[in-house]
Amino acid sequence: VLAGAAQRVGEGDLDVKVPEHKTGDEVALLSTVFNRMTAQVKGQRDALVSANRESEERRNFTETVLSGVSAGVIGLDADGGVELANDAARVMLGIEADPTGKALNDIVPAAVDIFEKAATSVAGAALSQIEMTINGVNRELLVRVSARSSRDIDQGYVMTIDDLTALVSAQREAAWGDVARRIAHEIKNPLTPIQLSAERLKRKFTKLDSEDTEALNRYADVIVRQAGDIRRMVDEFSKFA
User: Fold this and answer.
1) What is the pLDDT of residues 133-159, one digit of tens each?
2) How far is residue 92's CA from residue 134's CA, in Å, rounded to a whole number?
3) Is 118 exposed, middle or buried (0-12, 13-18, 19+ CB in 10 A)?
4) Burial class for 115, CB neighbours closer than 10 Å (0-12, 13-18, 19+)
5) Distance CA 91, CA 137 (A)
6) Are the C-beta atoms of residues 92 and 139 closer than 8 Å to each other?
7) Which of 58, 99, 156, 219 could serve as 77's disulfide partner, Cβ 3.0–4.6 Å?
8) Is 19 helix (H, G, I), strand (E, B) or coil?
């Protein structure tokens, strides 16, 4: 009976039990120990299955949450190996294949220094802005690295990535637009007094000889006309800015 039960246990059936006799001999003791052993093994197996199921459920939940986050998120082990990367991170970095198991240097080499700063800092965190060329496009990325636990760095780190390309570009455009408006304003300021001065010259020297008056009027008209042309160009430049 014990041999058959042992064979069933070997095949994975941990619910098998053998009759326990109260004869007090070695066979009775062996039957009791056998049943106790199978019960303990079954309990340990069920606990492992339950723990594995909970771990898988937590992982699925984490992946589901991260898939809806706009920021790129990468889970790193204590040595900088990639344990997890959400879809946003893969899109930002132009990664097609699953990067799990790869080194950080293989997927985001520009962020290695930030990871090393976080790993050696007291707070276990570091933040910096980096530039990367991804699929031929220059990207401005804000990278944060934080330890999962300030008490145990062996638990690894979490890296978050925000794409600042559009924001930086808008800031630069706004800055250049402000510069352009200032330039237009500085050019436009002297145009009015130039035009007024030319017109006053024409009125003031009307008593000159007809030939001189004609020349003066012609020169003054050129000044007024060119100042007007410049004013129009500056107005267009201001609209463009």
Assistant:
1) 888 888 899 999 999 887 777 788 999
2) 8
3) buried
4) buried
5) 13
6) yes
7) 156
8) coil
Contact present, 9 and 34 (Cβ < 8 Å) = no
Measured at the alpha carbon of residue 110, what is the angle toward residues 105 and 113, in degrees to the nearest 5?
80
**134 CA to centre of own chain:** 13
CA 22 to chain centroid: 70
DSSP letter assigned to residue 151: S
Helix 2-10 / helix 26-67 crossing angle, nearest 10 deg: 10
For residue 142, the tally of other CB atoms under 10 A from its CB is 16
Q: Is the pTM of this model over 0.70?
A: no
Buried b (16+ CB within 10 A) or exposed e, 172-209: eeeeeeeeeeeebeeebeebeeebeebeeebeeeeeee
Least confident residue range of 17-21, 140-144, 163-167: 17-21
- In 106-233, the DSSP E strands lie at 125-134, 137-147, 157-163
* CB-based contacts of 111, cutoff 8 Å, min separation 6: 104, 130, 143, 145, 159, 161
